[in-house]
Protein: Thioesterase family protein
Organism: Nocardioides agri
Amino acid sequence: MPLPDLTVPRRFCGPPSSGNGGWSAGALAAYVDGPAVAVSLLAPPPLDAPMTVGAEGDGVVASQDGRPVLRAEPFPGDLAVVAWVPVEEARGAQASYAGLESHPFPTCFSCGTGRDDGLRIFPGRVADQEGGARVAATWTPDASVAETLAATTWAALDCVGGWAGDLEERLMVLARMTARVDLLPEVGAEHVVVGLGRRTEGRKTFTASALYDADGRLLGSAEHLWIAVDPAAFS
């Protein structure tokens, strides 16, 4: 039986003309069985345009006009653990969010400063973890994301990683995201999102993130691979 098409609604953009990487990855991850799923972003996800989804091995590929855009597959390994930050500390860190001064994609559904209808996750610096830079913010899911909560949770776990990396120094886009969401966040409740910078290798930056409830219970974890790109590509 054919799999249903995947469409990224315009609300869930990252850059103005393409899907937020985390939301798009999370939407495709729903087609794959397994507690953890790895999604590679092969091209900018189109907005308001259906992508054909087909099986590939034990995973799936979303394509537009025959061109692969996203590939998802089960991930059998463990994910990095990013330590919890208390709600009050995460809330206070938001004032130091670097994106308030300069933001490469203010339209971003997850972390954009120009989006009243976005998640408005604004992570600021907190104490390092084992030498890695760490950022944290609070997030309260509202009723408008209740029907897309799984993909939206991936979006919440997405950009916080980039801000823990070197997004302030160079423009990066998400190339691969691996996530495990054991419990979906509660709509209307305050949560904590934490990001961790892990390492940089040439154009590649590796980060991790975690989503906690207000009591410090881990709901989901993610790891990311980011690729530095020429800003002219988005001008």
Q: What stands out?
A: The mean pLDDT is 97. The chain has three helices and ten strands. The two ends are 42 Å apart (CA to CA).
